[in-house]
Amino acid sequence: MKKLAIVSSLLLLLSLGVIGYFYYQDYKTGAIEEREELLVATTNDLFHNRGIYLDEIESIKAYKGTTGVYPFNYFVVVVLKDNREFYYEWKDKEKSKVKYNESFN
Question: Which tops the pLDDT comparison, 23 or 80?
């Protein structure tokens, strides 16, 4: 009887661990998809609306902020080789457009 209780407890713990792992992977993948969606919109704006070419870009990084309301808690920082920086985020809740701020170092 004790053996059955121990085996049942171990199976329950293992099941909870597996469920937790898959939940974390789903959460992590969702965050990646959200950042990629903003990255695509950002690069589209850079290349088509701002006339910036790939060889002018030093780095592009996407972040998820710890504060803010979805989808405004995601932002992208683009650093150009001439030290200009662009900060991109979603302009509206429907994620139809991006807005940017430019700063000079």
Answer: 80
State pLDDT tens for residues 16-47. 999 999 888 777 666 788 888 999 999 999 99
Residue position matching structure tokens 């932002």: 75
Q: Domain limits at 42? A: 2-104
91: Cα within 13 Å, side-chain hemisphere: 9
Q: How many CA atoms lie within 13 A of 31 on its CB side?
A: 13
**Which pLDDT tens digit goes with each residue over 51-65?**
888 899 999 998 887
- Token pair for 30: 């969702």
Q: How far apart are CA 40 and CA 97, in angstroms?
A: 11
**Count of domains for the chain:** 1
Which amino acid, one-letter code, is at 69? V
- Tokens of residue 24, six digits: 């974390």
* 3-state SS, residue 102: strand
Which pair of structure tokens corresponds to residue 37? Answer: 């969606």
CA distance 35 to 63: 7
Residue 72 Cα to chain centre, angstroms = 11
